[in-house]
C-alpha cells in the first residue's frame, strides 16, 4: 500500500483516524495498540508473508534489548549487542544481498547459482536500521530498553515511516511512545504537510520519471543534450519522490502526535558535495555518522585511519541502497569527492561557481546511481560530456523538452526554498491564512485525479 493510492487515501487512513480519535476510548494503551495493529495491516497489505519476518525481527530486538539492560557487566552487554547486530545484519544480508553475492561468486567460480533467488522485503533496510538504532541507543545509555514488546513494535512498524523512512532514531521517539500529545493544530499542520508531500510525488516526481525512464531506458544512442535532460529529470524525480514521501511520513506522524526529524533541507542549493550530504537523506547520513563513523574514531585518529573511516562509511552508504556494483561505485564516488573537498577546501575557492560544481557532481552521481551497470553508467556520462561522435541535440531532445519543460521548470524552482520564503513573508497576512487551505485542497484534488487516471505510481526508495 502506498500513500498516493486511493485505497490508502480513502479507506485505510480515514478508518485509522476515525478509530484512533473515537470519543469513547482514548487511553494511550488503546491508541498505541490500535496504531500497531493498523501498521502491521498496512505492511501485510503488500507483504503478507514478510510481515512475519518483521515481527520476528521486532521480538528478537526487544528480547536482546532487555538482556542488554539487565546484563551484569559491560562485557556481557557487548556480547548481547554483538549478537543483536549479527542477527539483524544477517537477515538484511540474506534477503537483500545474498542473491547478488551468489551471482557474483558464480561468475568467479564458473558455477550456476541462478537458483538462489530471494525476494526483497519492502522497507527491510529502514526497519533493520531502526532496530539497530534501538540496540545501539540502549548500549550507549541514550535510552532505556522497553519492557513491552508492543512498544518496540510500534516504534519499528509505525506505518508513516515504515516503508521508506525517515530512519527514526529510538532516542528521539522513546518518550513520544507513551507521552506524546495530540492536538488539533498538529493534526491540521500534519495534514497540510501530507498534502504538500503528495503533490510533490504525484504532480512532479511521476511526470519527471516518465522523462527519465524514457531516456535512460531507451537503449538508443543519445545526444549530449538528451543525456543531460534525462539526468536532470531523474535528479528532480528522486528528490521529489523521496522528499515527498518524507513529507507525507512526517505529516502523518504529526497527525497522530509523533514528531519525526526532518529528512531533507533543500539539498540542490548546496555549494559542495559535503553540504549536499548534510541536506540529503539526513536521517541516513546522521545514522552512519553516529553509529559507524564516530565509533570507528571519526576524525580524531591518524590521517590514514581517518581516510579508512571515510571509505568504510561511504562504501556502506552505497551498498545500503542496493545489491549492485553501481551503488557501491556511487558511494565511493562521494568518498572521493568528500575526501578531496576536506583535504583541499577547493569549493570555497570557486565563489559563485561552487553551486555549479556541486550540481554537476550530484547529477553525474545520479547518472551512476540510475544506470543498471557500471559500463552503462560510463557510457551515459561520456555522452553527457560530449565524448565520442554524439550530436549536441537531436529530435529526441526536442520531443522530450517540449512535453516536459513546464514540469521540469516548476521542479527546479521548488527544489529551492521558494515556498518557505513565501510562507514566511505571508505568515501574518489574513488573506493567506484563508488561501492556503484552498491551495492545499486544490493540490489534493488534482493529485487524486491524476492518481486515479495514471498507471505509474511507484516510490523509488521502496527498492532500497
Mean pLDDT: 89
Radius of gyration: 23 Å
Strand content: under 5%
Q: State the distance separating the first and last CA atoms.
A: 16 Å
User: Roughly how much helix do the residues carry, as a percent range?
Assistant: over 70%
Shape: globular
Major beta sheet summary: none
**Low-pLDDT stretches:** none
**SS element count, helices:** 20
Number-wise, the strands total: 0
Question: What structural class do you assign from the helix and strand content?
Answer: mainly alpha
**SSE sequence, one letter per element:** HHHHHHHHHHHHHHHHHHHH
What does this structure look like?
This protein starts with 5 loop residues before the first helix and ends in an 11-residue tail after the last helix. The chain has helices spanning 6-20, 28-46, 51-69, 74-109, 124-139, 149-157, 159-162, 170-173, 176-179, 184-216, 224-255, 273-279, 282-293, 303-320, 325-344, 353-370, 374-384, 395-414, 418-426, 430-453. Helices cover 71% and strands 0% of the residues. The longest helix has 36 residues, at 74-109. By secondary structure, it is an all-alpha fold. The protein has 20 helices and no strands. Helix 2 (28-46) crosses helix 6 (149-157), helix 4 (74-109) packs antiparallel against helix 5 and helix 15 runs antiparallel to helix 16.
Amino acid at each position: 500500500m502506498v500513500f498516493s493510492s486511493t485505497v490508502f487515501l480513502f479507506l485505510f487512513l480515514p478508518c485509522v483516524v476515525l478509530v484512533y480519535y473515537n470519543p469513547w476510548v482514548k487511553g494511550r494503551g488503546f491508541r498505541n495498540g490500535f496504531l500497531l495493529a493498523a501498521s502491521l495491516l498496512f505492511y501485510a497489505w503488500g507483504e503478507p508473508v514478510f510481515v512475519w519476518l518483521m515481527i520476528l525481527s521486532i521480538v528478537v530486538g526487544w528480547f536482546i534489548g532487555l538482556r542488554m539492560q539487565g546484563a551484569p557487566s559491560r562485557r556481557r552487554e557487548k556480547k548481547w549487542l554483538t549478537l543483536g547486530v549479527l542477527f539483524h545484519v544477517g537477515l538484511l544480508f540474506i534477503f537483500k544481498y545474498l542473491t547478488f553475492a551468489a551471482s557474483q561468486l558464480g561468475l568467479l567460480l564458473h558455477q550456476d547459482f541462478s537458483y538462489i533467488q530471494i525476494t526483497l522485503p519492502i522497507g527491510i533496510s529502514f526497519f533493520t536500521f531502526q532496530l539497530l538504532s534501538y540496540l545501539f541507543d540502549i548500549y550507549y545509555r541514550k535510552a532505556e530498553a522497553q519492557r513491552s514488546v508492543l512498544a518496540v513494535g510500534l516504534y519499528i512498524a509505525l506505518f508513516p515511516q515504515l516503508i521508506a523512512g525517515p530512519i527514526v532514531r529510538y532516542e528521539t521517539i522513546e518518550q513520544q511512545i507513551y507521552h506524546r500529545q495530540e492536538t488539533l493544530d498538529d493534526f491540521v499542520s500534519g495534514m497540510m504537510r501530507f498534502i504538500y508531500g503528495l503533490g510533490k510525488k504525484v504532480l512532479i516526481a511521476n511526470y519527471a520519471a516518465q522523462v527519465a525512464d524514457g531516456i535512460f531506458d531507451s537503449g538508443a544512442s543519445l545526444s549530449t543534450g538528451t543525456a543531460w535532460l534525462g539526468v536532470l529529470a531523474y535528479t528532480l524525480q528522486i528528490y521529489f519522490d523521496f522528499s515527498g514521501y518524507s513529507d507525507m511520513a512526517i505529516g502523518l506522524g504529526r497527525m497522530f502526535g509523533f514528531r519525526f526529524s526532518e529528512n531533507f533541507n533543500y539539498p540542490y542549493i548546496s555549494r559542495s558535495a559535503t553540504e549536499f550530504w548534510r541536506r540529503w537523506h539526513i536521517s541516513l547520513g546522521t545514522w552512519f555518522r553516529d553509529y559507524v563513523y564516530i565509533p570507528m574514531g571519526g576524525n580524531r585518529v591518524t590521517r590514514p585511519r581517518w581516510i579508512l573511516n571515510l571509505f568504510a562509511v561511504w562504501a556502506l552508504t552505497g551498498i545500503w541502497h542496493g545489491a549492485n556494483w553501481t551503488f557501491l561505485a556511487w558511494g565511493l564516488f562521494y568518498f572521493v569527492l568528500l575526501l578531496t573537498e576536506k583535504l583541499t577546501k577547493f569549493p570555497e575557492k570557486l565563489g559563485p561557481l561552487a553551486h555549479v560544481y556541486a550540481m554537476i557532481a550530484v547529477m553525474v552521481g545520479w547518472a551512476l546511481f540510475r544506470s543498471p551497470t557500471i559500463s552503462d553508467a560510463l557510457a551515459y556520462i561520456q555522452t553527457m560530456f560530449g565524448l565520442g561522435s554524439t550530436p549536441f541535440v537531436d529530435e529526441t531532445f526536442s520531443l522530450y523538452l517540449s512535453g516536459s519543460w513546464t514540469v521540469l521548470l516548476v521542479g527546479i524552482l521548488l527544489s529551492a526554498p521558494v515556498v518557505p520564503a513565501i510562507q514566511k513573508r505571508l505568515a501574518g497576512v489574513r488573506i493567506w491564512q484563508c488561501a492556503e487551505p484552498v491551495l492545499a485542497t486544490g493540490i489534493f484534488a488534482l493529485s487524486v485525479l491524476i492518481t486515479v487516471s495514471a498507471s505509474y505510481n511507484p516510490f523509488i526508495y521502496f527498492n532500497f
